[in-house]
């Protein structure tokens, strides 16, 4: 069953209840990948009728996503992308990395939004942004759907470019997500500079396990124990 097309309902609600003049839709891609950045797009669309077929990027074929992205680049009022690198993800943890990437995207818009529609149920942005979270916002909200498509197409292109340096990983087809080819390349060649090194996939690779970095939580726990030791608590 086809999903209903996205609308401006949430944006109209924000305008009516908060007085927001500029509302940005925000969506991310790359959260579950093993390699590459996490990418966030912030898109401002106004209240115009969206291009035909706009919806969550995951529901579109590669060809249709690419076509829509080229149309959206001209159709949206404004958009900007923000990225958090694999090392930033390793150092900060995913939630903070998402906040960093989203902040970069929002800062890249020509005008600061008065409110943000964020896909999902978790507000990883927080103050000072006025945020409305919407579960499946990439299907139901025009601005979020536009951000979803642009982010996906642009990040896929980035990973394809990275794939020319490491063709054995097939980043051009898996965009840094786990796939049979990607897993086999990791076993054979180990992680590239574009891989996230605090992630659990390295636990299953004895040959390369020594490269694993502590996760953000593990590092925080270790720092807390060190501080406690210095204070004479142990």
Largest sheet: 5 strands, mixed
**Shape designation:** globular
The secondary-structure class comes to: alpha/beta
Strand coverage percent: 5-15%
Number of helices: 9
Strand arrangement across the biggest beta sheet? 3-2-1-4-5
Strand tally is: 5
- Mean pLDDT over the full residue set: 91
| Sequence stretches where pLDDT stays below 50 over 5 or more residues | 221-234
Distance between the termini: 60 Å
SSE series: HEEHEHHEEHHHHH
- CA-atom Rg in angstroms: 20 Å
Summarize the amount of helix as a percent range. 40-55%
What is this entry, summarized?
By secondary structure, the chain is α/β, with parallel strands linked by helices. It has nine helices and five strands.
